[in-house]
């Protein structure tokens, strides 16, 4: 297989297009920190850092879960289990993406560079959490919460209350939808000794916890908008997020998981993009 084919296969394996989940919230953090348009160079390096960090995290996750993915009928068709790409290439890709992230952080400011090893430790550590805790969903939320916090640091070179609250909103949002996604693998997780809230508590209770987390997320997001001094356009964004999350939870039932992918991928992609657009419009008007 050529280098280009291996790279294309790896990018498809890590779903590079799903960078859309965290990137818009990173941009929300950047726009809030700048109180409007950040410098174009700052936006460029934030985007590079985000894509690099997520690509490294996803590739590392595929390496860490290789054996589990091969044994799980749902994931056995992924590139590593089928041999479509080699472990050595994915390791090289992970190292390259990590280097891109650190390089991008160094182009922003000193605190961003100092923060980068901690961010990498968090996103890599997540891949092992299902082995020892049912709260792995919260660790994934913490990993993506680094996006708006890191973006704020990239613009201001300091940290304050607002990005921490925004990071909490992202953590609750991600943790909630990851619980929904984990509902697909309950039986496999039980057989394999992996842990998740659906596996531990059952689907009905896990989905209730997911709804609770998303409800708290909306409250926290409203607080961020209020504390940032934003207006009705941003609150419209919060209302839109609320409606989308209600729709997401209506798609999934304990007895019917057929629309999990629509709930996980489509709805959540719209959530982050829509909130960013409305917040940016509010800041720029």
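-> sequence recovered:
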């Amino acid at each position: 297989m050529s280098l280009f084919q291996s790279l294309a296969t790896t990018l498809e394996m890590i779903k590079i297009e799903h960078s859309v989940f965290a990137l818009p919230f990173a941009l929300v953090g950047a726009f809030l920190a700048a109180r409007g348009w950040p410098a174009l160079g700052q936006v460029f390096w934030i985007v590079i850092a985000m894509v690099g960090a997520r690509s490294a995290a996803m590739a590392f996750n595929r390496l860490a879960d290789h054996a589990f993915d091969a044994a799980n009928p749902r994931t056995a068709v992924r590139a590593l289990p089928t041999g479509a790409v080699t472990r050595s290439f994915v390791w090289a890709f992970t190292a390259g993406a990590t280097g891109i992230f650190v390089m991008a952080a160094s182009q922003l400011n000193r605190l961003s560079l100092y923060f980068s090893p901690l961010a990498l430790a968090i996103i890599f550590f997540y891949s092992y959490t299902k082995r020892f805790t049912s709260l792995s969903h919260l660790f994934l939320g913490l990993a993506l919460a680094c996006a708006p916090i890191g973006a704020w640091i990239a613009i201001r070179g300091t940290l304050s209350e607002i990005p921490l609250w925004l990071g909490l909103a992202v953590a609750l949002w991600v943790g909630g939808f990851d619980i929904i996604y984990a509902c697909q693998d309950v039986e496999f997780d039980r057989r394999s000794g992996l842990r998740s809230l659906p596996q531990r508590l059952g689907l009905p209770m896990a989905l209730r916890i997911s709804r609770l987390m998303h409800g708290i997320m909306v409250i926290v997001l409203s607080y961020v908008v209020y504390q940032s001094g934003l207006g009705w356009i941003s609150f419209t964004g919060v209302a839109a997020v609320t409606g989308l999350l209600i729709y997401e939870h209506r798609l999934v039932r304990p007895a019917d998981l057929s629309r999990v992918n629509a709930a996980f991928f489509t709805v959540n992609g719209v959530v982050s993009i829509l909130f960013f657009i409305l917040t940016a419009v509010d800041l720029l008007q």
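Residues 3-284 form a domain with the Tetracycline Repressor; domain 2 fold (CATH 1.10.357.140).
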